[in-house]
Amino acid sequence: MIYVTVGTHEQSFDRLVRAVDALKADGTITEEVIIQIGYSTYVPQHCTWQKLFPYQDMVRYMDEARIVITHGGPSSFLAPLRSGKVPVVVPRQLRYGEHVNDHQLEFCREVSQRSRNILLVEDVAQLRDVLTRYDELAAACSVGTASNNAAFNDHFCRIVADLLEA
């Protein structure tokens, strides 16, 4: 199953919803697709969809999905990362009227370059290739479920211990 979420931002994200629906229609995507379309105006014809899902349903769909496709909001792509999944991230863009500026695009570019743990898709024309090669591309990413909290706490404890010895 593929789960798609466009978030809860009040501008539509028809570009992504339409692209996923078209890939399902032409047979590129053969598995079930569930889309949370938010305030998008395009209504998918080939995928299961709902405007908004209760939080518990969204978490369940992310956990059950083989692939999670999401907009560029950090909360939406961090959730699958916490489950050890490499999300396909399609940032909302100003030029398409999907957001008030390009902060999602700029942020996702940084995350992609620094962390190499998301599959960034700036142009939905790339989505077919990314989904077709998903397993190969995801395997090349560095995804772990470990938190930085433990490393921070260890480092902080060493600093405190050094200060107490002085």
Describe the structure in your own words.
Strand 1, helix 1 (14-25) and strand 2 (33-36) form a beta-alpha-beta unit. The mean pLDDT is 91. The longest helix has 18 residues, at 148-165. The protein is of the alpha/beta class. A 6-stranded parallel β-sheet has the order 3-2-1-4-5-6, with helices on both faces. The N and C termini lie far apart (57 Å). 45% of the residues lie in helices and 11% in strands.
N-to-C order of helices and strands:
EHEEHEHEHEHHH
Q: What radius of gyration results from the CA coordinates? A: 18 Å
Approximate helicity band: 40-55%
The structural class is alpha/beta
User: What's the number of extended β-strand segments?
Assistant: 6
Shape: elongated
Strand content: 5-15%
Largest sheet: 6 strands, parallel
Short synopsis of the structure:
The chain is α/β, with parallel strands linked by helices and 166 residues long.
